[in-house]
Amino acid sequence: MIGPLMMCVSAVILLAGMLAGIVKGIKQDFALAPAHAHLNLVGGLKGESLVGIPIAGSLIVVAAMALFAVIVFRAAPG
For the segment 13-62, what is each residue's pLDDT rounded down to a tens digit? Predict the structure, then answer.
């Protein structure tokens, strides 16, 4: 059954990529920021006053992805 296996692998890879992005954000390593549209979605705000909004949003999205991964693994046969 390649379908369920691919879903599990995809969920793990996506979760790893999201966590790597969070780590790069924590380290403020934005060298690859032009490669992503996420910065544009935040509105390109400058300063520290509203930095908590994208941080909270990022953590909510990662938590949702982790929950999705758990659901995928539970639904996989075998």
Answer: 989 988 888 888 889 888 877 766 555 555 565 667 777 877 888 899 99
Any idea which residue has 């369920």 for tokens? 4
* Phi, psi (deg, nearest 5) at residue 75: -80, -15
Which stretches does DSSP call E strand in the chain? none
Half-sphere exposure of 32 (CA within 13 A, CB side): 8
Residue carrying the six token digits 């520290």: 48
Global confidence as pTM? 0.68
The radius of gyration computed from the CA coordinates of the chain, to the nearest angstrom, equals 15
